[in-house]
Amino acid sequence: MFARDIDLIVIEPTLFRDVVWPSQTLVRSQGVVEEDELTLSDPDADFESLGVDAGHVVMLGETAVEVVKRSSATRLALSRPRPEGVDAIGVGKYKGPVRIGTFMPQIEVVHRRLLRWAEIEDGARVLDGRAAAHAEALGALAMIHFAADAGAAARAVHYQRRFEIECERLSLALDLDGDGVAEQRRRVSGGPMYRA
User: Fold this and answer.
1) What distance in Å separates the CA atoms of residue 65 and residue 70, rounded to the nearest whole number?
2) Residue 51 phi/psi, 5° resolution?
3) Per-residue pLDDT tens for 57-106?
4) Hey, where are the domains in the chain?
């Protein structure tokens, strides 16, 4: 995938607070943050086996923070959300409830759809995948809000329209022969994901 969970909160900062699906909750525990590293009180917590790594979002109580890296199987380096390319911003000390959820299933659906619309079978051939991350995030937000509840329908339609506009302007640089150089640019063309 080109987008990560953190790309969703760059667009909608309260998403991980407002939409919680138990089936997509990876961790619910108590934890401590010291020197911008999270350790859970559960001695069996294993971030590696859960696949928690850079780009995931951790809820420290009601505050969303970014996983910068998995320091070890039991420790995560954290940052406040920040623009891409900006150094990590300290989160300070914390002790209390911790929840890590993910919307990667929705991002994956949108990712496959974008590749299909661009007539690409292998996303690894896309050299500028981060350029498509914004479109993937918008599409995932539309899916999430369409599924969330009836009260989120207007928000879902808003993100659906933004996703469609982003796809209309998006073209991807493709490395067709595996040499690391783009041989072709391909536009993403497709219809709406949903009918509003």
Assistant:
1) 14
2) 80, 20
3) 999 999 999 999 999 999 999 999 988 888 999 999 999 999 999 999 99
4) 5-101, 104-187
In sequence order, the 6+-apart residues with CB closer than 8 A to the CB of 21 are 101
CA 182 to CA 176: how far, in whole Å? 7
Q: What is the pTM of this model?
A: 0.88
Concatenated DSSP letters for 124-145? GGBTTHHHHHHHHHHHHHHHHH
Q: How many CB atoms lie within 10 A of CB 172?
A: 24
Task: Report the C-alpha gap between 166 and 134 in whole angstroms.
Answer: 8
Other Cβ atoms within 10 Å of 182 Cβ, number: 16
Cβ count within 10 A of residue 9: 19
State how far the alpha carbon of 56 is from the alpha carbons of 66, 133, 164, in Å. Answer: 6, 14, 25
Instruction: List the structure tokens of 52.
Output: 């928690």
Instruction: List helix spans (H) across the chain.
Output: 5-11, 15-18, 47-50, 104-117, 129-148, 153-169
Spatial distance between the Cα atoms of 122 and 140, rounded to a whole number of angstroms: 20
**Residue holding tokens 């661009």?**
118
pLDDT in tens, 127-149: 888 889 999 999 999 999 988 87
What 8-state DSSP symbol labels residue 87?
P
The residue behind tokens 């199987």 is 73
